[in-house]
Amino acid sequence: MTSLILATLALTATPAHAEISPCYNPGSGEKAEAFMEAYLATHSDGDTTDFVDVFAPGYVNHNPLMDVDYANYVGLMTLMFNAFPDLTYQVEQVVAQGDTIALYYSWTGTHRGDFMGYGATGNVVYGQGMEIHLVEDCEIVETWNMADLNGFFLQIQTP
After folding, report:
1. What pLDDT digit, counting tens, does each position of 1-39 carry?
2. What phi and psi, each to the nearest 5 degrees, are found at residue 98?
3. Are 97 and 133 a contacting pair, CB within 8 Å?
4. Rounded distance, CA 107 to CA 14, Å?
């Protein structure tokens, strides 16, 4: 009887991060879109503490500038949140296959603080990007990101 109860609990247990991030299970495109909506919501609230609810402890982000681990990714996003306090992201399209989710997104924010040597301009900037996420156990393990960095840096230069 105890084994049956434990097995039932194991099957119905919800990860601690489920309140913020709906679990993605391969084969469910609808769940993949909800998972990406929750992922981008953590990037639109200016608070990196929610990242632990989405990313696996050994998370790696491959982007055009460099590969970064979880701690450095949090640091980079903290810089973004400080420079663009109204930064918001929007899901444009999601495609999922197996443990992989492809995301096409857009973003906008107002340049109100220093960012990588560029002083605040007050410019409203926007952009688009694409990411491929490897998901395991409802957490993002690895991301490959391609965004229009040239367009981004042109927009934050003083007019």
Report:
1. 333 333 332 333 333 333 445 676 665 556 888 889 989
2. 60, -130
3. no
4. 31
Closest C-alpha among 107, 110, 95 to residue 149 = 107
Residue with the two structure tokens 């857009």? 106
Which pair of tokens denotes residue 123? Answer: 């410019």
pTM of the model: 0.81
d(CA 118, CA 31): 39
Q: Which domains does the chain have, with CATH numbers?
A: 2-155 (3.10.450.50)
Nearest to 100 by CA among 43, 29, 40: 29
List the structure tokens of 155: 């927009």
* Number of neighbours of residue 82 by Cβ within 10 angstroms: 14
41: number of Cβ within 10 Å: 16
Tokens at 44, concatenated: 């639109």
Label residue 19 exposed, middle or buried (CB < 10 Å: 0-12, 13-18, 19+).
exposed
